[in-house]
Amino acid sequence: MDYFRYYLTRKEFILRTGHRALTSLHTCKNPTSRLLRWALKLQGFKFKVEYITGDTNSADSLSRLVHVNV
Hints:
The chain is α+β, with helices and mostly antiparallel strands. The chain has three helices and two strands, in the order αβαβα.
């Protein structure tokens, strides 16, 4: 997101992720240190987090390729 900061700070966007913990980033009462770091890094952006399951996430599907022995 640092690379696209110039474009992302201009308007609200949807952050689609396969990481369910990020969906509660704004509402979590006792976040872990890792979630706190993410929250600090993302606090300058206006966005909504949307969870995508592994089956429908095309980027995740590439990492789940089934290897067939021939």
